[in-house]
Amino acid sequence: MIEAQGLSKSYGDFKALDDVSFNVGAGEIVGLLGHNGAGKTTTLKILTGFLQPDAGSIQIGGVDVIEDPQAAQAMIGYLPENAPVYSELSVQDYLLMVADVRNLANKLDAIKEAVVATALEDRLTTPIAQLSKGYRQRVGIAQAILHRPQLLILDEPTVGLDPSQLIEIRNLIKRLSQHSTILFSTHILPEVEALCDRAIILMNGKVRSDEQLDVLASTSSALLVLDDDVIGAAEALRNVTGVDSVERVSQASARDNVASQVAYRMTAFPNVDINPQLFALAKEQNWPLRELRYETQTLESVFNQLSQSS
Ligand code: ATP
C-alpha cells in the first residue's frame, strides 16, 4: 500500500529526513515511533503529497505521489497533527463542507457512515468549539474517513488526550483497521504496543528499526559482565553463532558497578538462545566472568538501546 524509497528532506541546512525507506502492506497497522523532532510529521506530509521530498519516491497503492498527488490523495485519509479547526461550525456542517470540497457522490450516506464509525451521532449539532479534545479528534478522524480511503495516515492521533479519551480513540483506530491500512505516528510506546503489528522507529531523520512486534518479542539479548577488560572480547562475541549484534554498554548496567568491569550486550537472532554458547566461550577463554544475564527484548528496550546509541 505504501512504498517509500530513499526519502530525504532538509529545511535550510537542517536534514530532517535522511534516506528513509519502508513499505506498508495492505491491511497492516503500523506505528511510526520517534521522539519529538525525529521527522515523523515530515515523513507523513511527504507520504500524503503535502510536502515535496528533496530526494526519493513514494507509491501509494501503485500511484506515484510526486507525479500524481491528487490520485494518491483519493486513496488516503489524513489526520494532520494540527487539524484545521472550523470551530464555529457544527459537526454536521463541517462534515458537509468537507464532503462538498471532496465532491463526494453520496454526501449524506458518506457522512452518516463516518459519524457512526466515530460514534459522533449525539454531537451532530454541537459547534466544534464546544467539544472536548477527544471528540474533536473524532471529528478529525471522521473527516479523514469520509471518502472511504484504503489508507489512513494519522499524525499523533492521541496527543493531549486524557486516559479515557485515549482508550476511546485507540478503540476507534482498532475498529477502523478492520477496513483500512493504517500508519500512525506517535512518541508513546504503549500506543504502538496496544495497536500495531509493526513499529518503524525513526531517530534523527533515519529509520533505526523496522520490525514486527512478535519478532521483537521472540528476540532475546544477553548481558555479559567481565571483571576486567579482555582484548578481543567483542570480536569473539560477535563470532558466536546466533549473535546478531554486540555493543559495549556502560558499567551502570552491571550489578556491582566496579570501575574495572566491562559489560557487553548481545542481541540474538529470533528464537535463538545464545547464553549456553556465551557461557562456553567465557569458560574456554578463561575470561573473568562476573555475570551472564538473559534479557527479553521489548519495544521499550529496543527504543532505549537505540536512543542511547544514536
Ligand atoms: P514532533 O513530534 O515534535 O512533531 P516530528 O517527529 O513530527 O516531531 P518533524 O515535525 O517532522 O518531527 O520535524 C523534524 C525536524 O525538522 C525538527 O527538528 C523540526 O524542528 C524541523 N522542522 C520541521 N518543519 C520545519 C520547517 N518548516 N522549517 C524548519 N525546520 C522544520
Provide structural commentary.
By secondary structure, the chain is an alpha/beta fold. Helix content is 33%, strand content 29%. A hairpin with a 2-residue loop joins strand 1 and strand 2. Helix 3 crosses helix 4 and helix 5 runs parallel beside helix 6. The protein starts with a strand and ends with a helix. The model has no long low-confidence stretch (mean pLDDT 90). The structure holds adenosine-5'-triphosphate. The site of adenosine-5'-triphosphate has 13 residues, from strand 2 and helix 1.
Short characterization:
The chain has 310 residues and is α/β, with parallel strands linked by helices. 33% of the residues lie in helices and 29% in strands.
Structural class: alpha/beta
Strands side by side in the biggest sheet = 6-7-8-3-9-10
Which stretches of 5+ consecutive residues score pLDDT under 50? none
Biggest sheet layout: 6 strands, mixed
Envelope shape: elongated
> Could you tell me which ligands this complex binds, including any ions or cofactors?
adenosine-5'-triphosphate
Q: Roughly what percent helix?
A: 25-40%
> What share of residues are in beta strands?
25-35%
Q: What features would you highlight for this structure?
A:
single chain; 310 residues; alpha/beta; four-stranded antiparallel sheet; 11 helices; 29% strand; binds adenosine-5'-triphosphate
Element layout with pairings:
Layout lengths: L1 E10 L2 E11 L4 E5 L6 H8 L7 E6 L2 E2 L4 H5 L2 E4 L11 H11 L5 H11 L15 H13 L5 E5 L7 H14 L4 E6 L2 H7 L2 E6 L2 E7 H5 L2 E7 L6 H6 L4 E7 L12 E7 L6 H10 L4 E8 L2 H11 L1
Parallel strand pairs: 3-8, 3-9, 6-7, 7-8
Antiparallel strand pairs: 1-2, 1-4, 4-5, 9-10, 11-13, 11-14, 12-13
Helix pairs in contact: 3-4, 4-5, 5-6
Bound molecules: adenosine-5'-triphosphate.
